[in-house]
Amino acid sequence: xxxxxxxxxxxxxxxxxxxxxxxxxxxxxxxxxxxxxxxxxxxxxxxxxxxxxxxxxxxxxxxxxxxxxxxxxxxxxxxxxxxxxxxxxxxxxxxxxxxxxxxxxxxxxxxxxxxxxxxxxxxxxxxxxxxxxxxxxxxxxxxxxxxxxxxxxxxxxxxxxxxxx
Length: 165
Hints:
Elements: E1 3-15, E2 19-21, E3 24-26, E4 30-32, H1 40-53, H2 58-61, H3 74-87, E5 90-100, H4 110-121, E6 128-133, H5 139-142, E7 146-157
Parallel strand pairs: 5-6
Antiparallel strand pairs: 1-4, 1-7, 2-3, 5-7
């Protein structure tokens, strides 16, 4: 039976940090503050995948109290989660996500982000969707104080048997 999970993450924008979304560095004067590279998109997808598998959340697997994960590249964390899910007998059905950011505009980076995510999750690009929206000038996103991301993921039981079917 297929299972679905939802993920959400938010990080403050900060001077002197890189802006990394979906494993892609986006040119901008500020980046996201966090223990890792603070890639809100990867974090939301990780939580959606873990939720679908009933395996807790990102903080349980990669706690910010553990210096092992300081400065971690979140795309690699996503790859670790996908590998663990595969070992546990799950296969990614699809991932749909939304990044909420006032600026910069992310449309020109969509294909690079999709390719990065699909490759790391080892799925066809048509199983991954990324959308972008703004805060319409309202709230912390609208004031360009931070970035948020939402994700929904579906997992299916991996095929069993020698034939892979």
